[in-house]
Design brief:
It is a single chain. This protein is α+β, with helices and mostly antiparallel strands and 164 residues long. The chain has 2 domains: 77 residues, Arc Repressor Mutant, subunit A, CATH 1.10.10; 43 residues, no CATH class. The N and C termini lie far apart (48 Å).
Length: 164
């Protein structure tokens, strides 16, 4: 069904405009299964890569996410960032130095995903010989998971990752 234009009178003329697009709301969950719930939010090709960029490469701006070698399209990136914001995983705020740009940062719920991203990194290195090993990051994480997780949590908001 196609949306119809809305007519309104402005001064002495009738103006037609298209209705405002509706913000997509979180879909109804398929089930209460925790894995299914996570897959609904993170189970696409791009969302975890955006989170990886924030955690491991300290990306904070839209343009920085576009620099990833995987080549995400701008419309997909915008939709995934919006979805992460709606679900309370990231926040979007104006850049204090340039109000035309937005900064993206992890919320507490987003920071709670760091151990999962680290475990996925270890799994990827152990099960794919072509994976980029990030030896220092993997060694630290295997040696002391708690310290490694805390270092990544602290680093997300304070500066560049030493291994990037």
């Amino acid at each position: 069904m196609q949306a119809t234009s809305i007519a309104y009178v402005h001064a002495d003329r009738v103006v037609l405009r298209e209705p405002e697009p509706k913000k997509s709301m979180p879909r109804e969950k398929r089930s209460g299964c925790p894995i299914s719930i996570c897959l609904e939010l993170f189970g696409d090709r791009w969302t975890l890569l955006i989170l990886r960029s924030i955690v491991f490469y300290r990306h904070r701006y839209f343009a920085e996410f576009l620099e990833a070698k995987e080549g995400i399209a701008t419309n997909i990136l915008a939709e995934r960032l919006d979805r992460l914001e709606r679900h309370g995983i990231v926040t979007k705020s104006p850049d204090p130095e340039d109000a035309r740009r937005s900064l993206y940062a992890l919320t507490e719920a987003g920071l709670d995903l760091i151990p999962i991203l680290l475990e996925m990194t270890v799994w990827g290195v152990e099960h794919d010989p072509e994976a980029n090993p990030h030896e220092e990051r993997i060694a630290l994480f295997k040696k002391d998971r708690t310290t490694s997780i805390q270092a990544h949590r602290d680093g997300v908001s304070v500066g560049p990752c030493p291994e990037s």
